[in-house]
Amino acid sequence: MSISEMEDPEMKGKKKRGRPGKQAPVQEFVKKGETCGKKSGRGKANGVAQHNGDGGDPVTLFEVVKLGKSAMQSVVDEWIESYKQDRDLALLDLINFFIQCSGCKGTVRIEMFRNMQNAEIIRKMTEEFDEDSGDYPLTMPGPMWKKFRYNFCEFISVLIRQCQYSIIYDEYMMDTVISLLTGLSDSQVRAFRHTSTLAAMKLMTALVNVALNLSIHQDNTQRQYEAERNKIAGKRANEKLELLLQKRKELQENQDEIENMMNSIFKGIFVHRYRDAIAEIRAICIEEIGVWMKMYSDAFLNDSYLKYVGWTLHDRQGEVRLKCLKALQNLYTNRELFPKLELFTNRFKDRIVSMTLDKEYDVAVEAIRLVTLILQGSEDALSNEDCENVYHLVYSAHRPVAVAAGEFLHRKLFSRHDPQAEEALAKRRGRSSPNGNLIRMLVLFFLESELHEHAAYLVDSLWESSQELLKDWECMTELLLEEPVQGEEMLSDRQESALIELMVCTIRQAAEAHPPVGRGTGKRVLTAKERKTQIDDKNKLTEHFIMALPMLLSKYQADSEKVANLLQIPQYFDLDVYSAGRMEKHLDALLKQIRLVVEKHIEADVLEACSKTYSILCSEEYTIMNRVDIARSQLIDEMTDRFAHSVEELLQEAEEADDDDIYNVLSTLKRLTAFHNAHDLTRWDLFGNCYRLLKAGIEQGSMPEQIAVQALQCSHYSILWQLVKITEGVPSKAFMLLCDLLMIFSHQLISGGREGLQPLVFNPDSTLQNELLNFVLDHVFIDQDDESQSMEGDEEDEANKIEALHKRRNLLAAFCKLIIYDIVDMPAAADIFKHYMKYYNDYGDIIKETLSKTRQTDKILCAKTLILSLQQLFNELLQDQGPNLDRTSSHVSGIKELARRFALTFGLDQIKTREAVATLHKDGIEFAFKYQNPRGPEFPPINLAFLEVLSEFSSKLIRQDKKTVHSYLEKFMSESMSERREDVWLPLISYRNSLLTGGDEDHMSVTSGSSSKTGSVRSKKGRPPLHKKRIEEESSVEGSWMMRNDTLQTPGALQTPQLTSTVLRENRPAEHMPDPDSEPGSENDYMQMSWLGQQKIEEVNRKDRTGMNYIKSRSNQGVRRGLMEDDAEPIFEDVMMSSRGQLEDMNEEFEDTMVIDLPPSRNRRERAELRPDFFDSAAMIEDESYYISIFKK
């Protein structure tokens, strides 16, 4: 009981009505207990100070809970005090609390509370509710609103707990609250239903706790009464009996009243809302009923309530199904509840088992865990078929599902029921470990699953639950090396192979401490505890297998499959143990066994395993390197001598060579080829004999195909090892060669009906793409000082400078070509685009053409790449200057200028670029609000200044999209952000202004969060009807870009050109050289266009015409698009370098439907010798110094 309640004996002694769930009119309650005129404890009611009377600040209950600065118990005690002074005003504050928590801006007044029914009040609030605003506190993102939801639930719980001894029985408060919540829960407004359902369910949970306490008190009172009554007459206290009897009666009345309240909530709200159209509302109901059944199982854990959870297992939303499973897990965890769950288990077991295959991985994981709990509670509850449905999930690619299935498998098959008895039996049999039978069972399970290539997945699934079993390498080695004892069966050959494969997988898992390939998103950083466990496991397995591996190889050296697996073990050794533990004799034994394996086998996988083992043991960081190197050299010497001798015999006998001669050459060549892959065997000069074999095969035509293939492979490795040693004078040439090779062997190789060449297609992985990009950044975008220093004193030699620039342009063009033809991912171009301003004179044409071609391939991905380049520049600036950016600095201005020029490349057709521009704004907004300020929410986000850069693209949004983007921006803004006017918030103000200008006429003012003003929209006269129709069609899908999946797939690349070198054409007649500055859109062209536009406007006004038929005019003239395709939007050559004023004039004077044909410009300084057509699909240029033509038409 709270102190505030104890001080009011009058309230505690009130008569209880017994039907508090009845939805009586509000005015009825007011008439029964009207206490108006008293002061409210907190000095307010529904946020209106005039009801207060004490001059305090008008702070509502909603604001107090939202701020969360006070302890919830003190807030509730304060409300209880105000309730004692004036019940109406206190309840009015509570009602408005629920209304405001729904995001409704309306307020229930005292007159409405007294004179209107609940339905009328809710209807009035519904009329004032703006669902489009998106201001719904319980679901808004951000830490403040998450805390608010927690405070909301805690407030209701504490309120009932503090009122449980008197106020909830006063026939007024609970009736009013339950009646209001019941009415709101039936509203058509989603926010009302969600808020009232959450409040009602938390209210019900609190009442269940009260009912449980009452039940406990009743039982205690009954026991005291029985004990007192059973005393003999002389010792029996009749007064105590009467008091106990009266207390029991009072507790029973309270219990009945609480049950009536719970029935009202359950039947009035839960029964209707557990099947609500909104998944989140259904999930709330199921989550809370699970709490009731666990908290008060005697009352709720029966089929009448369990059926709702069982039915909802079939819900179409994974979120709801997940809540069902978690609610059931809480019940099945308590074994004492199993008898009450028996009927439910039999009825819904099949559904639960089937949910282990749910399409939502989270649901499948929880379903498997629930099945595991059922198995723990009753072995007979699941049939063999049910268990088999779970078994195969250990091979799932989704690791959480596999681990959960591994836990089930461990509980069912691999858990020891009587460890002590099993250990005693193992000792009697002479075994050091009792896990022998479990390991045999694991092998049988692996073989019966018939997924032998997935041994690593099986081990990973069981790793968390069965580590003790999987790390028992001593037991595994005993089973492989020792004879079976009495009572044991001998392992079959198939079982031995499976056991070795599983053993190697457990060694890998222990040594690497991360899941196998295909599971998980990558290597995560290990904790200190995990790192220590990894080191201990690696030492343990090393010490064991240093001695056991030579014996295993000796036993199975004739079996290629077993040997290939066993030879993988040394790569997981801690090789320092050999020298630290003075175990060189075991190293010699291992080397001896490997040599025997090499001499006995010619299978590729065995030889590769041997070669890899030698390579690992020969690492220079270990002291055993010299010993291993000697053994390897001796082996290579013998094989080389044997190879040379057999080649001589084969070439001498020529066509008379028999099978033995061919086998001798082939077997030795296979061994040498396998070793040459991992070892530099250049000093043995294998290339010479391989060349002789190939030459003889060409000349005589009788060389066996297998020998020719192996000789080619060995020659290839020999050349590669020699190339590794070449380190000077080749980086740039190697880069150009690699770019051309990637172009040759790209996806275009199979075009034109050449699908048979599919195996030759090579797509560079992310690592190779990053290396290419880093090379370009290091060798192309260099400062002039770096270039001058590299000239070694030839700074004044203009020819050398031009030649160096020419080479850098070739490197950049080669890489950009890979981006254009979808060989390198388009986002890599961000690192290129961001250098446009700084290196415009040197590479401006190449970067511009790359931008044009990439936009032609995928407008949306190109836009995302542009904003990514600006984000990179912004991040670099943050790293240099810190979070407090000087927005007036030249660096910030440079980024804004680059953004402005990027914006100009989108052209005039806003409809064609609509979705790309909108996506660009979406990414920019998310970046600006990505990181909150560590100093607190009252400070701007770290990247907020980026909005000033993003505002440069606002002019490219059509009117409808400006409103959509503005709405999306407001999702990230808190209420306080829109009211801030400090300098640090100017980027947000500026960006909002850019979206509101020219947008919807009825919008919110930037300078006042609550006032509205009419936007100034330029009148568009003479707009062609065709344009109006197109705008209407496009506006029907307004805002659809917000629902796009951010993961974009690049469409099919452009047709790859005929490939030659990417260097300059020479000896071309000057009069036929295309002027690179004559492409459409130069600065002078832009001026001419603007002037032409003005002349046309004046002519239109002079002739009093209302529209121009540009389509007709276009039919009489050619359209010049440069290197762009016909369907690409116009990108003007020099529009990126034009002024802002010209662009604004153009946008204002011309309509979007106008198509402008620009004449070529001849006014820029000629630089033809430095600006070839690097992306001409007809021919790529040939470098006579080191390139030859590869393809010819």
TrEMBL record:
Residues 1-52, 997-1041, 1065-1085 are annotated as: Disordered. Residues 1065-1075 have a biased composition (Basic and acidic residues). Residues 270-355 form the SCD domain. PROSITE patterns: SCD. Residues 1005-1017 have a biased composition (Low complexity). The keyword Nucleotide-binding does not apply. Residues 1018-1029 have a biased composition (Basic residues). It is found in: Nucleus; Chromosome; Chromosome, Centromere. Keywords: Cell cycle, Cell division, Chromosome, Chromosome partition, Coiled coil, Nucleus. GO terms for cellular component: chromatin; chromosome, centromeric region; cohesin complex; nucleus. Pfam families: HEAT_SCC3-SA (PF24571), SCD (PF21581), STAG (PF08514). The keyword Cell cycle applies. GO terms for molecular function: chromatin binding. GO terms for biological process: cell division; chromosome segregation; sister chromatid cohesion. Residues 234-264 form a coiled coil. Component of cohesin complex, a complex required for the cohesion of sister chromatids after DNA replication. The cohesin complex apparently forms a large proteinaceous ring within which sister chromatids can be trapped. At anaphase, the complex is cleaved and dissociates from chromatin, allowing sister chromatids to segregate. Belongs to the SCC3 family. Part of the cohesin complex which is composed of a heterodimer between a SMC1 protein (SMC1A or SMC1B) and SMC3, which are attached via their hinge domain, and RAD21 which link them at their heads, and one STAG protein. This is Cohesin subunit SA. The lineage of its organism: Eukaryota, Metazoa, Chordata, Craniata, Vertebrata.
